[in-house]
Specification:
It is built from two helices and three strands; from the N terminus they run βββαα. It folds into two domains: about 5-50, no CATH class; about 55-89. The protein has helices at about 35-50, 55-80; strands at about 5-10, 15-20, 30-35. It has about 90 residues and is an alpha+beta fold. The chain has a three-stranded antiparallel β-sheet with strand order 1-2-3.
Amino acid sequence: MNNIRVLAQRNLVWQSIDLYIRGVGEGSDPTIRLTDEQAQALLDQLVACGFRPTDSAGQLEATKDHLEDMRVLAFHALGVVRPEWVTSE
């Protein structure tokens, strides 16, 4: 059971997300083909179960840093002294 891998690939011909479960019937056809709506529902269910993308923490930090940079630029461009309530963490 631990040797099972799940791979996902967008299929432009079928306009679908093809899932390949390897270690179970090693065929070349997808194990299951999902519509975009079905794939989104699966993702929503995985998020509800507590799953997040592997690099989501790094992306959040990068977003925070970008927001801080944009604040600095905006205040400078407007010639406004940075309000006290706007603090960096």
